[in-house]
Amino acid sequence: MTRRTEWLCHASAWFGLIFATPLLVALGNQQDISIPLSLLIAGLLLLFFLLTLASRGLVSSLSARQRKMIAAVMLAIAFTLAIQGNIVNSLTYFGQFDGSRVDFRKYGSWFWFEWYGFLGGFLLLAILFGRAKRISAWWALLPILSFCLALAPALFSNARQSVGIASGNYDDSVFEFSTQRNLLHLLPDGMQGDIVEQVFRENPELAARFRGFTLYTDHLGLYYGTAPTLPALLTGVPFDFGKGHTFDWITPHIDENSYQNELADQGYALDLVPIADGYCVSRARSCVSRPFSGWKSWGYERHRIDSTLYSARLMADLTLYRLSPSYLKEKIYAAGEWMLAGSTLGGASPWPDPVIREWTEKMSLVSDAPRYKFYHYIGTHKPAFWNAACERIGALPHTRENFLGQAHCLLNSIAALLDRLEAEGIYDQTAMIISGDHGHDIAPADVSSPPESVDLGREMMGTARPVLLVKELAKREPLKFSRQPSSSVDVAAMALTLSENTLSGPGQMAGATEEEGFPDRYFHLYPVEKILRWNSEAIPYDQYRVRGPVARDESWELLSIEKDHPAPRQFPVVSHRTAADYLHGVRLNPAFPDHETAWIDRRQFAFLVSIPGPDATLVLSLHIPDWIGRQAFSVRVNETELAETVGLSAGDKFWQEVRIELPRRALKEGNNFVSLEFEELTNAPEVNYLKAAALLNSIHIEAGPD
User: Fold this and answer.
1) Average pLDDT of every residue of the chain
2) What average pLDDT score do residues 473-477 get?
3) 433: closest CA among 149, 178, 161, 187?
4) What does R_g of the chain's alpha carbons equal in angstroms?
5) Would you give the DSSP letter of residue 262?
6) DSSP-assigned letters across all residues of 121-174
7) Of 15-24, 278-287, 494-503, which range is least confident?
8) Dihedral (C-alpha) 607, 610, 613, 619: value to the nearest 10 degrees?
9) What contacts 391, CB < 8 A, 6 or more positions away?
């Protein structure tokens, strides 16, 4: 073995561990990494070269045979890490690491198979390389090439984005308020509206401190999570799933269309504290992003000192996680905290809202020019870490009681800020909007259980209800609870309405009232892993329309299913394996993926299907048991309601064939959305967990003549 090959073996072992993988995870987690890209690359390269020199230098005095054995071990490490990090790691998905506990054993026997394969593969490779008569330099280059191929797409797609998301311009002006007019937009992440309502109703002394505020109890969120919600909140324009999720289009879209630009036109000085630089507008006076990861949330000042160390530790955690089998992943991300970053308190705030506390402590009045503040912070994002007294006591069970406590903590902190505004004499001169981006999967008490209309659980209907709490200028009336309907897409317009109110004006918020009827509002579900790809590929989603109060089950309707690939033309046998990705409102058990008993257990049964031509017939195979007796349903194809209602009764044959002619005007090329609205659900006798409309066997599309 040549000295060059020996050097390459050592370099190969360190390349993926020290350079390629840390850079890859940094590019994929830009909201949590505060190190500028150029500095990061230079630092990683330097560390890579130093470790390569050190490991080769330590063995330089050994015999040739000993150096060959060590080179074989280093090469085995390189191959094992490359296979694990670039191939095996992508075979499993454990969700977002937001502080929630993760079940790393959910894939069953794979947990142990992967672990023993990792160990056995390393030992086998070490033995094979050690016994080889000659180790080729090309062998050492293969793992390096593998890591380069994995890194290249992320590096090129992020070429126009700096890793240093948190490296914005620090400006003390964020603590400066106007003597005449201020507008504050607070975005506590994951704060659920019905939770806030309960806290206020159970704590009248806290509610009394929110003078002039209105809590909108019929507010609907647009999206399941943060990523698509933020652009919609800031611009009033729904998120474009067709463009994917990347700052390449999100940042210029926000910079051009954010309502904050109109505030600048009105003379407001803009001080922004978002979670990423991509949400900054170019007309802001200052924009210092404060990313958060799990319970980590920095204040405006503390971040400057502590974020680099935290970023390094987080990158180390993420690198080890990517290169490790599930057995070790379980220890790297244990109990909802990272092994290194999660236990590092140096850069973390003891509170979920540090900037608000800094405003309360450092507020100064400097001029009569209008001031605008925007702050997006961890808020009540799951899991709950803080109790009602704002004591951080660790990841708490996912219960309504625990989130009531954490919401009480945040509201009390906001109340302290209100007290400071009062003490400074600018309470009447300050308007405020507090808008959550989504709820946190807590079932609202006013939602029926289980919902009968659509295939949504009560928990998801809680996620669809973020808080909307508004204070107008010169208002001091006791806290009001309004049933006026609204959604996240209305927040931008409401913020502008607040900015335009005069101190003596009526201050009536624009929008529909309950008496005027409910507008159509929309909620979207999407696969989180598709959002996290951070690329321009279209993101599939389900769109729900809400016509009426958000708490009423019958207000909800699944409007469409959008996929980034063609749906099947038929489902010869409906089971979880064949149909779960395309059907809603039918009971399919993932524990038994080939089980063919598919009960329609919602009044709306909807599915996506490819239709090959302009003329087609929908053929359904259904069973109506005696305990249901008679059933009827209406049919909608895309946006077209079919005129006739289909009636069925229990018959002589177990499976009944239902044929429905699909009118040409209703169809479109490619995927088509079909919805069946059943008249009622019936309780199954002696089965307390089943309420059903019919039993489904198969779905076919028969094409008409050419």
Assistant:
1) 88
2) 92
3) 187
4) 29
5) H
6) HHHHHHHHHHH-S---HHHHHHHHHHHHHHHHHHHHHTTTS-S-TT-----GGG
7) 494-503
8) -50
9) none
* CB-based contacts of 630, cutoff 8 Å, min separation 6: 624, 647, 648, 649, 650
Give the pLDDT confidence of 135-150 residue by residue, as tens digits: 888 899 999 999 999 9
52-62 pLDDT per residue, tens: 999 999 998 89
Q: What is the pLDDT of residue 302?
A: 60
> β-strands 371-377, 296-297: how paired?
unpaired
**What residue type is 84 in one-letter code?**
Q
The DSSP bridge partners found for residue 672 are: 609
Asked if 306 and 347 touch (Cβ cutoff 8 Å), the reply is: yes
- Please, are residues 640 and 663 in contact by the beta-carbon 8 Å criterion? yes
| pLDDT tens-place string over residues 586-619 | 999 888 888 888 999 999 999 999 998 788 899 9
Pairwise CA distance, residues 151 & 168, whole Å:
26
Q: Which residue has the higher pLDDT, 220 or 278?
A: 220
Least confident range of 33-42, 136-145, 407-416, 485-494: 33-42
Burial (CB < 10 A; 0-12, 13-18, 19+), residue 7, is middle
Q: What is the pLDDT of residue 396?
A: 85
| Ramachandran class of 93: left when φ > 0, alpha when ψ lies in -120 to 50, beta otherwise | beta
Domains and CATH numbers, the chain: 3-157 (no CATH), 172-299+349-522 (3.40.720.10), 565-703 (2.60.120.260)
d(CA 374, CA 651): 63
Residues 405 and 382: their CA atoms lie apart, in Å, by: 13
At 572, which amino acid appears? P
The reported pTM is 0.77
- The mean pLDDT of 84-109, rounded to a whole number, is 83
Q: Please give the single-letter amino acid code of residue 310.
A: Y
DSSP string for 422-484: HHTT-STTEEEEEE-S---S---TTS-SS-SSSS--HHHHHHT-B-EEEE-TT--SPPEEE--
- The tally of CA atoms less than 13 A away on the side-chain side of residue 454 is 24
Say how far apart CA 70 and CA 648 lie, in whole Å: 75
- For 439, the token pair is 């709820």
Query: Tokens in use for 136?
Result: 């080729």
CB 213 within 8 A of CB 480: yes
Three-state SS for 283?
Answer: coil
Distances in Å between the Cα of 147 and the Cα atoms of 89, 312, 476, 528 are: 13, 20, 61, 25
Determine the Cα–Cα distance for residues 118 and 329; give it in Å rounded to an integer: 13
What integer pLDDT is reported at residue 322 of this predicted model? 94
